[in-house]
Write a sequence for this structure.
């Protein structure tokens, strides 16, 4: 791939998918025509230096991409791709949860009750999706206005060099996607586990029919049961501290724009605390609050479902411990003082 193709592809990364192909084709044609004209005027064939000179004058990819977009959005082109990714993930999770709840609730129901349940599940799901959409838009609109625009300003104000396209990414530079996604994920966990734990519950009726927690209660509904046990919720205050620290850590990363020794030590401490809590959860009593009595609708499968859920939770905890453990080792290696070549020569 030549430098013009790399440049055009870099511009396309900052454009909406529906208009990307047309703009890339147009831009490639313009650059090739300009390059041909320069070659004729210079009386020499096209070479890398001529290409770099042309691209340098044409402008940085982000700036060129911005020229094809409206000047201002509630959520600008810098954050829009991440905004769409978060929306897709959140809506997918909501859809899966709604389908699971509906499938369990619809077991052994009459057609009329099935239609009523469909309405009861659909309306809260739609309402929850609208609420989630509004909250995500609000968060990204705030981020659009408070995040430093230094990266964008550097591109626009400083002399841009096409040779940077051939360089690899800076190892200590922090992108937007990871920190913003972790901030949203931790905020969601704090809100759900501290203020809306009922969203993690199912109800059951005297006729052994389940209903979604938070739906309208009828006279034959005799109680609710939490998916997670009291043993788990005893650790929620400690988990909340870790989630808050993660938010603070990612906010600092977004503000600084790159990793520094202090932020690495901060991350190391938070991950060690998270691993400690996960080990305590793994070694403690069952984290699933469902019982065979609350799952009578499943009959003989009730115990198998509880065992499977416990296994899934334990597997998730093990994965968190392993992944955080890998990050801890990597962070320690990055922070470990290394001997300089001159020190090694003198045996120091």
């Amino acid at each position: 791939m030549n430098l013009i193709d790399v440049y055009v592809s870099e511009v396309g990364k900052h454009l909406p998918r529906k208009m990307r192909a047309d703009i890339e084709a147009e831009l490639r044609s313009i650059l090739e025509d300009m390059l041909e004209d320069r070659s004729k005027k210079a009386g020499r064939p096209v070479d890398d230096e001529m290409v770099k000179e042309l691209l340098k004058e044409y402008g940085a990819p982000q700036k060129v991409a911005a020229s094809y977009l409206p000047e201002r959005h509630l959520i600008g082109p810098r954050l829009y791709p991440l905004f769409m990714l978060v929306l897709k993930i959140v809506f997918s999770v909501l859809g899966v949860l709604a389908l699971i709840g509906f499938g369990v609730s619809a077991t052994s129901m009459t057609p009329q009750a099935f239609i009523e349940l469909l309405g009861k599940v659909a309306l809260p799901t739609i309402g929850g999706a609208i609420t989630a959409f509004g909250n995500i838009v609000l968060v990204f609109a705030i981020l659009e206005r408070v995040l430093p625009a230094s990266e964008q300003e550097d591109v626009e104000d400083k002399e841009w060099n096409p040779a940077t396209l051939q360089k690899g990414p800076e190892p200590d530079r922090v992108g937007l996607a990871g920190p913003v996604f972790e901030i949203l994920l931790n905020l969601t966990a704090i809100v759900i586990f501290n203020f809306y734990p009922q969203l993690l519950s199912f109800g059951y009726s005297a006729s052994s029919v389940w209903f979604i927690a938070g739906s309208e209660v009828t006279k034959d509904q005799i109680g609710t049961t939490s998916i997670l046990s009291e043993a788990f919720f005893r650790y929620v205050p400690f988990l909340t501290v870790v989630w808050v620290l993660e938010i603070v850590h990612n906010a600092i990363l977004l503000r600084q724009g790159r990793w520094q020794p202090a932020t690495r030590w901060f991350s190391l401490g938070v991950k060690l605390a998270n691993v400690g809590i996960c080990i305590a959860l793994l070694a403690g009593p069952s984290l699933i609050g469902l019982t065979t009595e609350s799952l009578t609708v499943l009959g003989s499968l009730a115990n198998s479902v509880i065992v499977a859920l416990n296994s899934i939770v334990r597997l998730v905890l093990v994965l968190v411990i392993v992944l955080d453990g890998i990050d801890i080792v990597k962070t320690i290696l990055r922070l470990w003082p290394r001997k300089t070549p001159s020190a090694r020569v003198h045996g120091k």
Summary: The longest strand covers residues 221-226. Strands lie at 201-205, 210-212, 221-226. The first helix runs from residue 3 to 12. The chain is about 65% helix and 5% strand.
